[in-house]
Amino acid sequence: xxxxxxxxxxxxxxxxxxxxxxxxxxxxxxxxxxxxxxxxxxxxxxxxxxxxxxxxxxxxxxxxxxxxxxxxxxxxxxxxxxxxxxxxxxxxxxxxxxxxxxxxxxxxxxxxxxxxxxxxxxxxxxxxxxxxxxxxxxxxxxxxxxxxxxxxxxxxxxxxxxxxxxxxxxxxxxxxxxxxxxxxxxxxxxxxxxxxxxxxxxxxxxxxxxxxxxxxxxxxxxxxxxxxxxxxxxxxxxxxxxxxxxxxxxxxxxxxxxxx
Length: 260
What we know:
By secondary structure, the chain is of the alpha+beta class. It is 33% helix and 21% strand.
């Protein structure tokens, strides 16, 4: 017998407002639908609740990354047989801002397809946004260092966006990639992806901050929460954290400078 209550749009909105998501805020959301509980209407209900919590003057943003638009040799889930690599590289679709689905989960995918949502153009680390500041956030996205300066993440930092971790940990917090990108000894990698150059298919390779979320991000998050700088609560059944992005980044930079 199911002894849990169904989660509704109105209950989600109450939880969001109670945690601190208020009308007019710019909020960047990282989420897990399964952590929320049994939601009436599924992921679109969560998106509607976020819209209503922020109101008409609020701006909602979500990372809409597409890691499987990269060189298949770097894939880990799934890791494909080496004998397949050349064929997959030849046939791998080039990222399309309008049609390539995000791999960030059901809630970001519902948001990506929502009428009025805009999306930045980066083939691996795009960002979606909707609201008065959406065009400003998504209009530019450099290929190199896709979570660093000049990207939507810097725009969100400068706009003093709040970050909502809805049922996920700090290892999912892209603001920490932005923080690390500001440090001289940042961890580096290279990413490859197909692109179109005058209609001709080419492969591009650009530098980026290394995609290691599990070594330092949870430590920073624990220190940050322990310092009393974040709001904690539940959205449905999901343990959630709300905080100003700028404050977290400014907190994280000295940490990275001390350990890298």
